[in-house]
Amino acid sequence: MAAGTDTLHDSYQWQTRTNRLGFWLFFLSEVFIFGGLLVARFFLWGGTRPDLPQIPPLLLTVALLLSSFFMFRAEMAIATDDRKTFTRSLLLTAVLGSIFFLGVMFVEWGFTVENGQLVLGNHIKPTDGVYGAVFYGMTGLHALHVISGVIGILLVWNLGRKGHFSAERHWGVEATAIYWHYVDLVWVFFYPALYLIGTAVGHGH
Amino acid sequence: MRVLKLGLVRGLLGGIMGWLFGFALVIGARLALGLPAKWNPNLVADTSTVWRFLATAFAPYEPAMVVGAIFFAIGFMIGVGAVTDWLKWARGIETPFHHGARIPGTPEWARYFNVDYSHKVIGVQYGITGILLLGVGGTLAMIFRLQLAQPELNFVQPDAFNTMISAHGMIMIGAILLGVGAMSNYLVPLMIGANDMAFPRLNAFAFWINVPGALLLSSAMFIGGWNTGWTGYPPLSSQAPLGVQYFFLGVFFIGLSSILGSLNVIVTTITMRSPGMSLFRMPIFVWAAFATSIIQLTATQLIGLSFLMVLMQRIMGMGFFDPGGPVWYEVDKWVGGGNPILFQHLFWFYSHPAVYVFILPGLGIISELLPVFSRKPLFGYKWVAMSSMAIALVGFLVWAHHMFVSGMSNFLRVPFMMSTLLVAVPTGVKFFSWLGTLWGGRIEYKTPMLFALGAISVFLIGGLTGPPLGTVATDMNLTDTYFVVGHFHATMFGGFVFPFFAALYYWFPKATGRMYNERLGQLHFWLMTPAFWVMSLGQIFVGTHGMRRRIASYEFELGIGDAQMMVTIAGFVIFTSVLIMLANLFVLSWRAQRAGANPWRSRGLEWQVPSPMPEMTYATTPIVVGEPYDYGKPGSTYVQFAPAPLAPALGAGVTGGD
Lengths: 205, 658
Description:
heterodimer; A: mainly alpha; Four Helix Bundle (Hemerythrin (Met), subunit A); 5 helices; 4 strands; elongated; B: mainly alpha; Cytochrome C Oxidase, Chain A; 2 domains; two-stranded antiparallel sheet; 21 helices; 2 strands; globular
């Protein structure tokens, strides 16, 4: 079989349009796994929620929402070839995203030493019945997406620093930005479902 | 080390290294914290036989086994080279796309063992892997059917029996998903006049992730097996042997393939159709693949989630499905409260639509073949196209009919019964169209056509046994009997196996340029179809006479020994007939006569190019000027070829990039 080229489908513009469609379909698919977790939350917790400290998650939420603003700024900057704002805003986004991720890891989950053994669970443990299970399930899957997003942003930042991307050709930036906004949007649904909706139920000890 | 040039070998090595890394990572972290390596010190390996040793040795290290399996898949994908281009992109290295072997100089046969971006190679890879899995699942069925051939036999031990039926179920589902992937990857670009899929690299990734998935799924049988059936319901699956974890992970990776592959099919169908091919000029199979892909893209996430939740419950103690022991859910405390019914909702939200994933492409193949061999237009084209979409959409609303007796809220039963019976309407449209197409046609009974007709007869058995199971009152009596087994196998054979074989015979000359042996094809059909009728009606019969699903033995007093023997014999006849097909297609046909470009006088796009097809299927862009199925209408044309390649639609001269 001889090699060849497909002139109709090899152009950057055609590929970007196709990539965009594929990316949105990927999000549609992801809606179902996040939606499934939300269904699990309402199925298992009903009108209750675990009584957890409110301030740390609120601050983390602010950090994540702010990061979306800087991601948007980065995308707008590269669209006008403002490379300095572009790389700076990307870095800020990554820092804010990391703050969120580390906050979930070390404040919301927390690691404590019990009987000389490192265990998960500052406020709530994975083994705390359905409250622990759903809490760690939802924050865990979301955190996995956040850290993938942070890695993606850092990769794009690294490429941008080396002079890749331009006002006309920055699908990589656009994709990372959409992904980041999407992860942010998921949290907009998860945060109230975990911390705000329902009657607080204490540990009862 | 020439053998390392084969991606498959590199993948396996990478997988083993990944597995060892993941296993050592978890055990090492545990030892670093000063904890014993075993999670459960009470479990000790049984060294009496190799088999028992494998089945017991790994059980104390369950979390390490799980992490090892995940790294096995990652290591495999890196080793095989499915992510090489993406890793280059991440470092800013551009990899321009070439049609042809990915690594120049690769011999033709080696392309099938390597990552290759051609949709034709990937389609064949899917097909061969699917047939291999079909063989594994079929062999398991042959073994446990021997156990069931007569009452109160002791041929297969109960534990092994449980593992075998569970593995048969899920391995066959994997095989069917791969077969569906084979058909949609191979045929969709051909039928819409494209030279490849929209995302060739993603396509290769989506195929190769099946290999670690299938390996994990099969290896689950050896590390303790599992006794949950293919459904993996908790609480049984949360206490089952270690094998259940590898079953979950295997399904998870095969599911990932479904999601990514279907995404590709949808984008390809939307963006890469030939000029002139409006939606209602697409071949029916493309409609079917499109509808299938909508289900695969979305619903698959839910089975992944449900299995992941049980997996986490087992290794992290997260009690999603654990009601909390003797003390039921205390409102004021964070204990218990889990609910196994939630698992069934999440699981069936995928697993019911999944059966439409299995059958819709097959039904599309039937609609594709009947007009060709009847020399008549397809009856009610638009209705058939829309019926696939309707089945896919209604399929999302019926899942709880699997749960009529599971203890879910009673008020849900009747609405789900109604929605279930609604599926009969679009399915009836398809049957009506098939009969209308055959009516008055000059039918040529070639092997592909025979299998299409056989599929209709078998799918009819499956279709007619559906309403008794979808109706609450009758389902209460039939649930968990062999009647369900009979119904399910009839739908799977009628909706997938028969049409898949029809497709193999039909497109074999196009793919290889050789014609299969028609007499052996006919022999295959005439062995398999009556045997299937016997098997199916036998299963239905024993089901109505008291045979339960998933039991390793039954009493003499049921009086169904003869019928069971018939089912087993019929099963063996089917197995043998499939071997005849494999010999016909993959051994004998290499010496067979050459097939021309269009042996079936089809109007389809792919039949207008030489067989076997060149690397770039359509060097000149096909232009669709008519209706796809106007067989026998004088002067009608479906496709014309442009004299020269069309000018690029957008951005001429731009290649590759960020």
